[in-house]
Amino acid sequence: MFTDGRRRRVIFAAHCFLNQNSISDGTAVYPASFKGLISLMTENEIGIVQMPCPELMCLGLDRGNPNGADSPVTVENTRIRRAMLEKDKYARLEQLADSVIFQILEYRKHGFEILGIVGANRSPNCGVETTSDNNEEVAGKGLFMALLAKKLSAHGITIPMTGIKSDEDIPKIKDLFK
Ligand code: SF4
User: Fold this and answer.
1) Would 3 be classed as within a structural domain?
2) Looking at ligand 1, which residue's alpha carbon is closest to its atom 5?
3) C-beta atoms surrounding 62 within 10 Å
4) What's the domain range around 19?
5) If we measure between CA atoms, which residue out of 87, 65, 86 comes closest to residue 76?
6) 18 CB under 6 A from ligand 1?
7) Over the stretch 36-64, which tens digit does the pLDDT of each residue have?
């Protein structure tokens, strides 16, 4: 099964790396996507699984604040973090994390290689090494990545996680498959 043209190896990536249009107002760094990430994955025959954007799916494209871009990023990010912790939003976040876990389990069940999960540092949801809280960038995972890590651990699965902010951080991703 699956002995066709596919290479059977993937990474899971934050939604906004492939679609900058999803990111909170004032924080997009590219017109459309992270070209360096896409090139690297294409050159190395690694499929990119685009995870859902938790903030878009839980709070909407404007994150519930049409003036979000007027505040410093970490201040707005902290507001977003608080909003995501509201009961209904967090329940939705759990569902989104479960949808990612389902895909991971499916790929693993069929012997595919999952090289890593690449998140967006400083994000209140997708940060891996850093996130935003108390109006500053702090060490630690965002809410979505923390949920993924917890659910993976419950399944006894270890997948490397790394965070980037732009194509300048691409060397960190190379470490996942060298
Ligand atoms: S970092 Fe995560 S929550 Fe923020 S725009 Fe990207 S995918 Fe959405």
Assistant:
1) no
2) 23
3) 13
4) 9-174
5) 65
6) no
7) 999 999 999 999 999 999 999 999 999 99
Q: Which whole-number Å values give the CA distances from 164 to 72, 107, 149, in the listed order?
A: 20, 24, 17
In a domain, 161, yes or no: yes
Ligand 1 atom, smallest distance to 52 CA = 7
Amino acid at 17: F
16 touches ligand 1 (CB under 6 Å): yes
User: Is residue 78 domain-resident?
Assistant: yes
* pLDDT single digits (tens) 104-118: 999 999 999 999 999
Please report whether residue 116 resides in a domain.
Answer: yes
pLDDT at 177: 83
- Residue 104, both tokens: 């991971």
Please tell me the total count of domains within the chain.
1
CA end-to-end span of the chain, whole Å? 27
Per-residue model confidence as pLDDT tens digits over 118-173: 999 999 999 999 999 999 999 999 999 999 999 999 999 999 999 999 999 999 99
Q: Whose CA is nearest to atom 6 of ligand 1?
A: 16
